[in-house]
Amino acid sequence: MQLLKEKILAQGQVLSGNVLKVDGFLNHQMDVALFAEMGREFCRLFGSEKVTKIVTIEASGIGIACLTAHAFYTEYGQHIPVVFAKKCRTANLSADVYAAPVQSYTHGCCYDVVISKQYLSPGDRVLLIDDFLANGYALAGLRELVRQSGATLIGAGIAIEKGFQPGGATLRQEGMRIESLAIIDRMDDSGITFR
Ligand code: 5GP
Prior knowledge:
The protein has 6 helices and 10 strands, in the order H-E-E-H-H-E-H-E-E-E-E-H-E-H-E-E. The chain has 195 residues and is α/β, with parallel strands linked by helices. The longest helix is centred in the middle third of the chain and has 17 residues, at 60-76. It binds guanosine-5'-monophosphate. Guanosine-5'-monophosphate binds next to strand 2, strand 7 and helix 5.
């Protein structure tokens, strides 16, 4: 998506550890007009899939997921709830939740992602949304929650995929449909190259 790529080039900072900092429009301050464009694009890509639920992970996926749900409403009149998986550090999980372990890319540590059993059921057709795809741990964790619920996973919409890291290739090989709006093939001090 051209607009997103332009924002990344204009404002993205490449940090050590292969981290792209995009706090100016995505991870701290949020460019809602850009999110609306991203939402419309995900809606165009997944619009025929009879999605009943959008699942994301706190915190940075929530804004994009909400604007995607809003696009489904304005384009197709569909009311699709957004459920965000909570990140939880306590091992003490109740029987009322689906839970899966995830290793954090940016913080290194491990946490559980948790969704109440109330909000995902076998009849659901689920679209996953997230801000970044790197090693694929977050998406794999969300996929596991969907599996536990018995719902159908339609695929995943990602804002920025770092294509030089293995998550996208691995998960696609495992059969997940992933649509990324910007795929970065290379990034370093000299610049950012898109696929
Ligand atoms: P993965 O689980 O695929 O390794 O990493 C995805 C998660 O880590 C995303 O939810 C995102 O929060 C975070 N992440 C991974 N790489 C980056 C990055 O380069 N920049 C930022 N801001 N977040 C990242």
